Amino acid sequence: MSCQQVPTTPALNPYPRSVQVGEFEVAIDGGIWVAIRVRTANVQEQIEWDDLLFIAESFVGREDQKLQLHDIVMSMANSRELVGKVALVKQIPHSQATFGGFLGVLRPWQLEPRFVMALLRTPYARSTLIDSASQTTNIANVSLGKLRPLAFPVPPLAEQSRIVTRVEELMRLCDALQAKGQLQATQHAQLVSTLLGTLTASATPEELAENWQRVAQHFDLLLDRPEAIDALEQTLLQLAVRGLLVPQDPTDEPASILLARMCTEKDRLIAIGQIKRDKPLPPITDEEKPFELPVGWEWVRWANIAMKIGDIDHKMPSEAKDGVPYVSPRDFYGTNDIDFDGAKRIAYSDYVELASKIRPEVGDLIYPRYGTIGVVRKVTTDREFLASYSCAVIKVLRGFIEPDYQYLFSVSGCAKAQAASATNKTTQPNVGLKSIQEYLVPLPPLAEQSRIVTRVTALRRLCADLRQRLAEREAVQARLAEALVHEVSSV
Length: 491
Fold this sequence. Notes:
alpha+beta; Adenine-n6-DNA-methyltransferase TaqI, Chain A, domain 2; three-stranded mixed beta sheet; about 15% strand; elongated
């Protein structure tokens, strides 16, 4: 038997004229009374009375199943994070209310209800309830038998009231600080976006220098949060691949000649059977080009300048305890680290078979194609390992492309924007190998690639130092806050 869910407005408190019971609509007049049933979804920071289920009074079996003011409603079955969640009944907007399954009600006796609720929300009570809960696949359950032995200190009744008053004052202060912090965070993000946007909007090195001076005046406000430093670092990468971070040298060999030499080298590698000829790539149209390049640069497809972009066969290799690491994006951590020790291991025979198609080497890129798309890793070790078929391996054409420049492009906004456009929006977002091969890459002369890498490396090192200083400052602030809390709690 089911009842229709009837939304109401707490301020008006209207009774429904009827409820749906099975296939029948039952009138609510002629002496038939109703009760509202509070469900797990209604137990939030407070009881939410605007999404209620109306039931016939006859369904309320006992008088003690009716809610009273100052009752504490607890979620007895929920996710592990939410089980034991409590809310205080401060009002009952209808004549009577009861509670549904998976809820328990605590009715404090000769105790301040708000004090009891505050205790139940402490980390001690929450962790004790969660640890005592029985766990199914998705649901944790707290029984009354586990709840009754829960021990907590009980001060005199008058002190309970004083504690509640003080806690409520402090919570209002915390709410105000949080609201102010959120507002400040929004305003700060807008400031960062505006100031850094002026840098990426620069059309020439001279305009960038002028805009940089303007932004530098606000660095004390701009770089006081980790996310702002992340945004600055991403801006530097974007400036680098646009040719605005280092000056051009007219004596450098143009990228067009470099590209022609690359084609000759790839033809040689194809002739000796070291690589296979790529499928023809579509020509680059003016509409595709996201920005203008300096003189001497060229727009190219990624497959044109990589020795190879591919992945291993889509088969599941045999696991072996002491085998070869078989890494996937879940083994990526830090900024360019791979957890080889924690990665899955595969049989050496499978490694030999799969590595014959494409084997990662120093300088190559591991490019995730699923989930964390574009969280790229540059290979810095010559140890034997394979990247799973959830990744593309981008092999560098040595002597023609600076490996670190190819990496800088892969993590720049230029590459990320193309990844976002090419991503298939399925249950698990993914980007196809063909799309990666067709990414547009701004190609500078080889000598300028090296200058860009040197410059960006130095600037990223400064960004890392800024993050470290922020972390140290936050650690000091955390220690001061902890000392303050200790002093307050010891009063």
